[in-house]
Write a structure and sequence with these properties.
With 133 residues, the protein is mainly β. Helices cover 5% and strands 38% of the residues. Bound molecules: zinc ion (2 copies).
């Protein structure tokens, strides 16, 4: 049986339970950098495998790309492209992350210069050069 994960925002207004989380990736793209204040550390889950309690606020950064966060405390929780049937879930919002694997770093071409990536960790200049799985 797949491992189940739970998580939520700081104030507890938004909670979720997710199954079958994919490896976590660090996204250094400019949008994630600005939205999170550093970079996005996020796993992925199929929409069918996550249930959300509460109403995250969604902010569209482009026509189909949106970030989800708690409208009360501001915690970053989700990212989604409307063309995809999966959701990105921030690693930091998990109650416990034991068992979650790390894939590597994407969009390193847009990362903040002060962020140092260990040489042994996988890095990709863009998402599309190596789709996370
Ligand atoms: Zn909250
Ligand atoms: Zn990003």
């Amino acid at each position: 049986m797949a491992q189940s994960f739970s998580g939520g925002c700081v104030c507890g207004g938004v909670r979720y339970t997710a199954n079958k989380l994919r490896p976590l990736w660090y996204c250094h793209c400019e949008q994630c950098r600005r939205m999170t204040g550093n970079f996005m550390a996020a796993s992925q889950v199929d929409i069918a495998d996550i249930s959300v309690v509460g109403s995250p606020k969604w902010f569209y950064v482009s026509e189909k790309s949106r970030y989800g966060f708690c409208s009360e405390c501001g915690s970053q929780l989700f990212w989604r492209n409307d063309d995809n049937d999966y959701l990105s879930v921030t690693g930091g919002s998990l109650d416990a992350s034991k068992g979650l694997k790390v894939g590597g770093h994407i969009f390193t071409c847009e990362k903040a210069e002060y962020v140092k990536i260990p040489a042994e960790e996988l890095t990709f200049l863009t998402y599309w050069s190596q789709p996370p799985e």
